Amino acid sequence: MARNRQNLNIIYISDRMRETLRPIASCALTAVVAPMGYGKTTAVRWFLAEQAKAGAVVLQASIYSDNCSIFWKSVQKAFAAAGLTVLEGYDCPADASGAALLLEDLCAALGGKTPMMLAKKPRFDSLAQRGEVGLVRTVAEGLTPGSDVANLSVMGYDPKKYYTGRSPLEAVSMGVNLGDTDVAFRCNLVTLSDEADYAEKTMVDYCAGDISSEEAAEIIKTVQAHFGNAEFAFHPGVSYRHCMVWHGGKLELGHMTPPHDISGRVVGEHLSRHPDAVRLIAMMEESYALLKDHPVNLARIAAGKRPANSIWLWGQGSKPMLPSFEATYGVKGSVISAVDLLKGIGKCAGMDTPEVPGATGYIDTNFKGKAQAAVDALASGKDFVYIHIEAPDECGHRNEPENKVRAIELIDEQVLSVLLPALEQYDDYKVMILPDHPTPIVTRTHAGDPVPYMIYHKNKEKSSGVDSINEESAKATGNFIEYGSGIMQKFLTED
Which of 238, 266, 215 is nearest to 94 (CA)? Predict the structure, then answer.
């Protein structure tokens, strides 16, 4: 009698094994561990093949080396073989923070949706359907992308002509009087790691755990008592944002790196080596020893909060000179913002900058209060209101995709819901909505790419052929404004 021959090409996977492998599809990372010869590779390949049948994209890279460069090239090759170019130009992550950032970028690239696309924003989109939608370059070629140059541009001031630095604008908002030879600096309170050598410390948090203004004022008081003199003066601001003035100071200091640009990175390679910056860098280094055991920080640590254990100086500039917004555009305006930079631009331009209780510059800000302040400004006789909301930008810096989506939704729910009904009492009105600049979650810093804009005119509705405002719909319209400083003229004067 002939014996039945076994088909050795059939792979048997037990129910128990199937359940064991299930986390591969539901977790960011799954480690499959077993002794050699137990069939790990076979089982995983079977499982991934099943996932591929269901429509998943499966990438495989076999690496038999502990060389990081070889490993990374294999990973990039695997992605490229699947037609995915997202890893081109990326270095292999050096730490957990870098890996997290890369993961966010991968998710965005593979998911194909930005926070503006994901956010539920019916009021935004309703205006977009009846208005002009397009792209505008708010950061001119050759300029470092930042809220300073971008908002100057949106407000109609050419940064190449009027920009003198970020911190002077913030200083004006804080009531700091700058002399012609003064140089103002942003003075962040930051959280650094505890390595002995300052250059080896990591930028743990550029905003020191959202330290309160009251706590920060105590720390800045200590900083002023220690470093302040006829040459240097420290002034308290809001939360982590403060100001230092260097009387008779230098402007050319090399690159004084913004702390939000180096979140999760070792700070040493980002400290200026310029000879005129030596004293400032030494001040930053000394501040760590001064602040690490400060009573405010000890209390914050005990409460499970991040300490403000170092100052960080950046964004230097000289006294700003902006022409009046009213004289330039023929309208009286107000600026509504929680951020000293924006209020400083407004004050330099001769605009009102009312204080809004509960305005924080983050997702917990008083959205409705800002909207109501704008309504009140218009009712008091203002022709124009510039409402600035920092929350989406902050969420980008902090690598918080869900909060960034939610921030956009809150603008729709709590700002436009108050503003639009109030505007209906007027015979005519215009609304312009746009980001000042991109802050991609993956990079956690500003970018100079064009941003979507929308302009709605009540009595002259139009259609750009799109039903939503986001990066892709704006690009699809073909409308493009190359010079961002022209968008205010367009908004105020064109029909």
Answer: 266
Quote the pTM value. 0.68
Query: Which two structure tokens, joined as six digits, stand for 172?
Result: 């004006």
Of 421, 340, 426, 419, residue with least CA distance to 385: 419
The distance in angstroms from the start CA to the end CA of the chain is 94
The conformation of residue 144, written as its DSSP 8-state character, comes to P
Q: Quick check: 136 and 451 in contact, CB under 8 A?
A: yes
Q: How many residues does the chain have?
A: 495
* 182-192 and 241-247 beta bridge pairing: antiparallel
Per-residue pLDDT of the chain (495 residues; tens, 9 = 90+): 455 555 555 667 777 777 677 666 656 567 777 787 777 778 877 777 776 665 566 777 766 667 777 878 888 887 777 666 667 777 887 776 566 666 666 665 656 678 899 899 999 999 999 999 999 999 988 888 889 999 999 999 999 999 888 899 989 988 898 999 999 999 999 999 999 999 999 999 999 999 999 999 999 999 999 999 999 999 999 899 999 999 999 999 999 999 998 988 999 999 999 999 999 999 999 999 999 999 999 999 999 999 999 999 999 999 888 999 999 999 999 999 998 889 999 999 999 999 999 998 889 999 999 999 999 999 999 999 999 999 999 888 887 888 899 999 999 999 999 999 999 999 999 999 999 998 887 677 788 889 999 999 999 999 999 999 999 999 999 999 999 999 999 999 987
Looking at the DSSP bridge assignments, the partners of residue 241 are 188, 238
Of the candidates 329, 202, 195, 317, the one whose C-alpha atom is nearest the C-alpha of residue 250 is: 317
CB atoms within 10 A of CB 349: 25
Rounded to whole angstroms, what are the CA distances from 65 to 14, 35, 61, 253, 269? 31, 19, 12, 44, 30
Q: How far is Cα 453 from Cα 229, in angstroms, rounded to an integer?
A: 46
How far is it, in rounded angstroms, from Cα 372 to Cα 314? 34
Spell out the domains of the chain, with CATH numbers in brackets. Answer: 7-58 (no CATH), 115-163+321-493 (3.40.720.10), 182-317 (no CATH)
